Amino acid sequence: MPSVYIKTYGCQMNERDSEAVAASFIRRGYALARSEAVADVVLLNTCSVRDQAERKAVGKMRTLAAEVRRHRPHVLLGFLGCMAQSRGEELVRDVPGVRLVLGTQKFHRAGELVDELLAGRRKTICEVGEEAGSEREIRDHVLNLAGEPRSVTAFVSIMQGCNQHCTFCIVPHTRGRERSRSIAEIVEECRGLVARGVREITLLGQIVTSYGRREIGERDGLSAFVQLLEAVNAVEGLERIRFTSPHPKGYGDDLIAAYGSISKLCTSAHIPVQSGSDRVLRAMHRGYTRERFLEIVRKLRAVRPDVGLSTDLIVGFPGETEADFEETLGLAREAAFDAAFVFKYSPRRQTAAAEMDGQLPKEVIEARHARLLDLINEIATDRYAALVGRKVEVLVEGPSRRNPERLEGRTSCNKIVVFDGAPQQVGAVVPLRIGRASNVTLYGDPVSHLDEN
């Protein structure tokens, strides 16, 4: 059978989708190629959130198409995912050599449609329509392939779509409206992963805290999402639960309390704030204020003082003034984020912000991005340095990405720790004492029985 290579751009949702597509190909007898250079089928799973991601994917495909035309004309090329959903037939028309364009509700049909193309039954295929029940199809995993490290972490998709319609974001157009899976189905998937050696699960959704609002609803004062967390917490053999990405509006008192009551829920929270200016937040259609966000931070730290807090921030939103930007700098200082993804605003078609007055010059956006990034790194350096000398518990994930002779894992508060250890420790939770720190990594030493405090 042919081999397939899938290159992924963008978020964890895209990573999870690619994994499920790969699993569907394996079921049909395909091999997974190690690189695009030896694959019979090359698929790019694309992102539309940033302009740069789209340009990278299109540029990559044009390069691939030129190479294939010259040397490997039998190779099948295709786009999957958000950009495929957004652009559809335009990609077949404008990128010569592309024969498959598959939208976000059609991932589970990738193997079947590639079969048709390879058999010559169809020349090109573009499918970007809605499909009822597609949220239940992203459930298969590719774990522990021969020659690869044991997988001790896994993503589980719990819902698809987004109803928020932030003015800068194209996701509601590319992913559709919110659709949630059942708690029982998700728990069953988690049990299956644990049986295969997974010890940490990350629950995924475009706005994960919106899970089940219509399908399940509130019960005994608990949102559907917290009900799900409790159900997953009961899975035997599972060590840790994470989730991403939430929305500040989803951080009700029940979810904040869950950080103190749900034993396997990690002490980390990635809560995208986007801006520290109430005026900009209103223009973004975010639905909360600066003070409400800081209130969530205070409440979380009251329940778990050791919580690791990260966020997303956008600089250069249309109409953002220097005063607005200073508000964002001030919020970053007050919230004292452990980490932040800082993005330069870029107009996206099919979004309201692209049509707004006050689009900022590139040089202004670049300068603000650099200033905010410097501040975030300064705060993170202090936050990481404060852990030097502390004892932490780390779930060992495998060899360090920079030095395979060492091991790497994460603390509950989502900080990477590199240390000297043995391969049999992969999958275990081990105590370490932090010896030194950078602004993105901790370095630890094993804790002996005589040094446990």
Provide a concise account of the structure shown:
With 453 residues, this protein is α/β, with parallel strands linked by helices.
What would the keywords be for this entry?
single chain, alpha/beta, 6-stranded parallel β-sheet, 19 strands
Structure description:
The relative contact order is 0.08. The N and C termini lie far apart (56 Å). 34% of the residues lie in helices and 21% in strands. The longest helix is centred in the C-terminal third of the chain and has 24 residues, at 362-385. The protein is globular. The strands form 5 sheets. It has a 6-stranded parallel β-sheet, sandwiched between helices. Strands 15-16-17-19-18 form a 5-stranded mixed barrel. It contains 13 helices and 19 strands. By secondary structure, the protein is of the alpha/beta class.
Arithmetic mean of pLDDT: 94
By helix and strand content, what is the structural category? Answer: alpha/beta
How much of the residues is beta strand, in percent?
Answer: 15-25%
Number of helices: 13
Cα-to-Cα separation, first versus last residue: 56 Å
Helix content: 25-40%
The largest pleated sheet is described as:
6 strands, parallel
Low-confidence stretches: none
How would you describe the shape?
A: globular
Radius of gyration: 23 Å
How many E-type strands? Answer: 19
Main β-sheet, spatial strand arrangement: 2-1-3-4-5-6
